[in-house]
Amino acid sequence: MSFPASAALSTPWLPGRTMLRYGVSVAGPVAVSGAHFLASLIFLDSLPADHFGLFSFVMVAVSFMMSANGALTGMPLTLVGAGREVRSACFVANGPLCLAVAALLLAALCYNGASFSTAAALSLYGAVFTFRWFARCFAYVEGNIARALGSDVLYGAVLVAGLGALKLSGHFSFAHGAETLLAASLIALMPYGRDFFGQMMAALRRRAFVDYAQLFRQHTRWSLMGVALTEVTANAHAYLVTFISGPGAFALLALGALLMRPAALAQTALPDLERPAMARAIARGDARALRHISRAFTGGLSAAWFGNVLLCAGLLAFAPDILPQKDYALGQVALVAAIAAVIMAARAFRTAPAVLLQAAGEFKALARVSMESAILSVGATLALLLLWGPVASLGGILLGDLVILGRTRYLARRWHAAHV
Q1: Residue 231's domain spans which residues?
Q2: SS3 of 83, please?
Q3: Helices in 260-362 by DSSP H: which ranges?
Q4: d(C-alpha 415, C-alpha 420), whole Å
Q5: Nearest Cα to 199, choosing from 187, 210, 212, 208?
Q6: Which of 11, 87, 251, 256 is the most exposed, fewest CB within 10 Å of its CB?
Q7: Is there a contact between 29 and 268 (Cβ–Cβ < 8 Å)?
Q8: Angle at CA 199, nearest 5°, toward 197 and 201?
């Protein structure tokens, strides 16, 4: 496919309009991010380091499950020409994926010392939250952003109200916190309505597994490989530190990374908005629109990162007592936060070219990049962890992210040169 030189931009790109568009899109993730931030503070203040580490591990694992869900079921919905068969296949595949999430989380939590009842509640929470993410992706593809926004806001409100009530009543515990997370994720499914669940039941009746098998062979296997290997690059420290040094050791890294969560949430949310827009621009042959989307995308992520860094620096410099630090020195927390900020900067600049390549269907090339970075990241993270400890292990993550940044930007430039 090549773009005509005279391709006109269908809609003028205006900074104010872009900011409003991003503001509406990010409002829901900001509500979720704010709720998770407050939840993290409550868990941190109320529980021993091991339990806070387990909670933080669940947040990392669920984020990966959301990305895997997007690769297996959300991404195919944005493909050009995705009709009823593709949608039915994605609906059918979503159920087994969510069950797999629950099983894997249950095993990991029990292995790391959680009680069975608490592990069960958290694993069900992961499954329901992953299911909700598919519903959210579907709402974006349908152009029904209000449902996605309503679900996000409802989830955040229920979670904050529930955990706050437990904290104020003096009855907060790890088990009660897990149950509140599960309840909030279940209630947050309500805005998607009967028609969404009706389409899901209709897809199940059509038994669209065969359709999904073909979809997997053609597209999603490469997308899933890329997501899995990117997760290894981005969060190898979470898994290695938790399973080698214990959840208590991971708690320090989680506390420092907590300060950069707003930027991380923007990097998770905006691709769901811009991937379909890029796919439509590619289908129209609208080169100018594609360039403007990419610039606005990177600009929005950079602005979110800069604001987050200012907030983080101000908090550590002028109001460090807001963060319950337990046995961690402020200098340790600030060091981890600084490394996390550099990692987030690399991801802010790599996201737009990576999403462009996804929209263009370059999943195999992205999988190769992720494989290269994953091998390097895991090796470096493990070596640094064993030699100098958990904080040093973040250097391996940064190294892997820099590799992805350089390779995705190179591939995006090459794709533009071949198609524009």
Answers
A1: 15-419
A2: coil
A3: 261-284, 287-318, 330-359
A4: 8
A5: 208
A6: 11
A7: yes
A8: 70
Domain membership of residue 6 (yes or no) is no
Amino acid at 17: R
Rounded to 10 degrees, what is the CA torsion of 56, 62, 65, 71?
-100
Other C-beta atoms closer than 10 Å to the C-beta of 374 total 23
Q: Is residue 370 part of a domain?
A: yes
CA distance 178 to 131: 17
Domain-located, residue 174: yes
Backbone angles phi, psi at 358, to 5 degrees: -65, -45
What's the CA dihedral at 176, 31, 61, 314 to 10 degrees? -100
Name 369's Cβ contacts closer than 8 Å, sequence gap at least 6: 226, 403, 404, 407, 408, 411
Kindly state whether residue 5 falls inside one of the protein's structural domains. no
**What is the amino acid identity at position 216?**
F
Averaged pLDDT of the chain: 85
From the list 61, 59, 406, the residue with the least C-alpha distance to 231 is 61
Give the CA distances from residue 30 to residues 43, 94, 304, in Å, rounded to whole numbers and listed in that order: 19, 25, 11
Q: How many domains does the chain have?
A: 1
Structure confidence by residue, pLDDT tens digits, 295-318: 999 998 999 899 999 999 998 888
Q: In whole angstroms, what is the distance from residue 264 CA to residue 59 CA?
A: 12
> For 256, how many CA atoms within 13 A lie in the half-sphere containing its CB?
25
Q: Which residues of the chain have pLDDT under 70?
A: 1-26, 78-83, 205-211, 322-327, 420
Helix axes 49-69, 84-111, angle to 10 degrees: 160
Those residues whose C-beta lies under 8 Å from the C-beta of residue 349, and which sit 6 or more positions away, are: 298, 301, 302, 405, 409
Q: What pLDDT, on the 0 to 100 scale, is given for residue 15?
A: 54
Tokens representing 80 are 């050009």
Q: What is residue 13's predicted lDDT score, i.e. its pLDDT?
A: 43
Tokens representing 382 are 């493990």
What are 121-150's pLDDT values in tens digits?
A: 999 999 999 999 899 888 887 878 889 899
Q: Please provide residue 227's backbone torsions phi and psi, each rounded to the nearest 5 degrees.
A: -65, -45
Q: Is the dihedral of CA 281, 287, 292, 298 positive or negative?
A: positive
